């Protein structure tokens, strides 16, 4: 629903019941006041001679008078009690053959002969009918007294009854107990009949409440105009902004709720833009990573395919297979496996500390697994893989996968770049100072001093570190370095006593679990 | 016939390869192509289980958990994910060892062998026999091909240290610290001298092997 329509409907829905409720309250107040006025005037009339006249001729006694309007309705209005208005019988004129009722005097508390409503209409007359103690009237014109009136007069001294006639006229009956006992005029019924269409029935005239309501409504609808317009403009701007990947800003002016909304959208827009940028950067990194990984894996895979194709050709030609070719193929497959593990380790290292587990790791078992993994490649290359570990498990705290990958990288480097009939040895020793030393020694070509310091200084930097360098110290040693740092260990590179390289890790032991 | 080994592996080529290699190594493999939630009595009589973690039907770790409620059979986990958390979880659930794919068949067979050998190694032996050597660790006597050999205290301690861990290399540094007389200044050079004397006394049998870069190891040896 549109804002304006909703507002108009809400206003109508609130105003109309409110008007009705006010009218009802006003009616009930007026009724009560009318009752009191009628009671007071009837009592005074009966006490100032009415009783005598009534008891003298109860069959015909009946008074027709005009009820007094409530005080607030009379104020400021001309009181024409000087004489009866034309066309209306005098209120104090007696009916039938009975003597005339009391003559009105100025200042009399009795009902005035005439009075006007606030809008100048005349009030309907009040008729009085006498009843005896049995609620029987000798006057044949008297209306019947029902249980409601009787009950009322017994309980409160006044019985009240209101009902509508078929023609819409409102009848108001008041049954009063007179301050004397016995006689045909013990009770008096005062009846007032409001003709149909009088202001006491239904709503007050439309122009009284309808016009202000209408003015209010139009004022609201007109005042809402600029608000609706600004909201529409803001909506358009937000749509345009979302259509432009939130690059287009929305205008913020003023300091009201609409400006607040625009400001909130600006904030949301900035947030979304930051998120988008962040996501794009991550996607770019992922794409780069994937592209480089693909490249890194595809190269050894191509070599492997070449070897397999060469073997197939030789088999078809009936030539014997060269063991060197087979070994090279195995090495490529082995390298690929190591590469993929390293990429996984690199991803976890880049993700940072939360990805790293700290659990007890038995270095003896780790060394044995690393040697077991590389033995099938070292043996055909005629490189002896040896290890020496303490007799009891060597427990340290760390991330088992990363540590294994680090040691594995160093060992694999020794194998890949070792000479035939060479050696790679892993020596694990503990000291009495609750620390361990793990050394990987080879008798390969070794690396120069310059290169060694370069490896230790250079940090792992995304792509640059992942290329396959001729000396094979690319990704592998960087991961080793990062893992060692992450665990707070120390790593040294030195020429081994056998002419090759000696990589040593030192770190603290933990007390065995359990 | 060799030990019966249960392989739980869903991949056909890999499964048949592993079965082939285990059979070639003298084992008697059984192959299940999917995981099952075992209850006591379901497990066939096997000496070891090789269990793949990523399985259809039942996830490998669930199977291991169920298995561990009634059986202590050694379990070797195969996993394609090189994830520490997986390994820690598997070991906590009672796995004995794990291997990350890819692996060489030789490596798998070695691991299986090592796992099956383990229990007999636990016992502390009083008499160690390696090849022609018979070493009585309590009586401090050594025989080569039934012939007693006289050794000095250091030489015997050296041989005993190696004999307690046959086939395993013992580092030079450990031997220097634990075997040589702490009163005298012991160096690796002194150790080498003791070793060469010991070798001479043991005669033509080359049981004390030098391990490159590490130290020494006791092997069955061959006659020269």
Automatic annotation (TrEMBL), chain A:
Domain (HAMP) spans 225-277
Where found, per UniProt?
Membrane
Q: Which InterPro entries match?
A: HAMP_dom, HATPase_C_sf, HATPase_dom, His_kinase_dom, HisK_dim/P_dom, HisK_dim/P_sf, Sig_transdc_His_kin-like_C, TCS_sensor_his_kinase
Q: Which GO terms describe its molecular function?
A: phosphorelay sensor kinase activity
Cellular component aspect of the GO annotation: plasma membrane
The record's EC number reads 2.7.13.3
List, alphabetically, the SMART domains matched: HAMP (SM00304), HATPase_c (SM00387), HisKA (SM00388)
CDD domains membership: HAMP, HisKA
Short name of one Pfam family: HATPase_c
- The protein's superkingdom reads Bacteria
Q: Which UniProt keywords apply?
A: Kinase, Membrane, Phosphoprotein, Transferase, Transmembrane, Transmembrane helix, Two-component regulatory system
Q: Which reactions appear under catalytic activity for this entry?
A: ATP + protein L-histidine = ADP + protein N-phospho-L-histidine
Disordered: annotated span: 44-123
According to its UniProt record, this protein's enzyme class is transferase
**Where does the record place Low complexity bias?**
112-123
The Histidine kinase domain extends over 292-511
**Where along the chain is composition biased (Basic and acidic residues)?**
71-82
Q: Which residues form a coiled coil?
A: none
Q: Which PANTHER family match?
A: SENSOR HISTIDINE KINASE TRCS, SENSOR HISTIDINE KINASE YKOH
Q: What is this protein called?
A: histidine kinase
UniProtKB/TrEMBL annotation, chain B:
Q: What processes in GO biological process is this protein linked to?
A: regulation of DNA-templated transcription
Q: Any one cellular component term from GO for this entry?
A: protein-DNA complex
Q: Which GO terms describe its molecular function?
A: phosphorelay response regulator activity; transcription cis-regulatory region binding
Keyword set for this entry?
Answer: DNA-binding, Phosphoprotein, Transcription, Transcription regulation, Two-component regulatory system
Record-linked PROSITE patterns: OMPR_PHOB, RESPONSE_REGULATORY
Sorted alphabetically, which InterPro entries does this protein's record hold? CheY-like_superfamily (IPR011006), OmpR/PhoB-type_DNA-bd (IPR001867), Sig_transdc_resp-reg_C-effctor (IPR016032), Sig_transdc_resp-reg_receiver (IPR001789), WalR-like (IPR039420), WH-like_DNA-bd_sf (IPR036388)
UniProt KW Transcription keyword: yes
Q: Where do the Response regulatory domain residues begin and end?
A: 4-116
Record-linked Pfam families: Response_reg, Trans_reg_C
Q: Which residues bind DNA?
A: 125-220
Q: Which residues form the OmpR/PhoB-type domain?
A: 125-220
Protein name as it appears in the record: Response regulator transcription factor
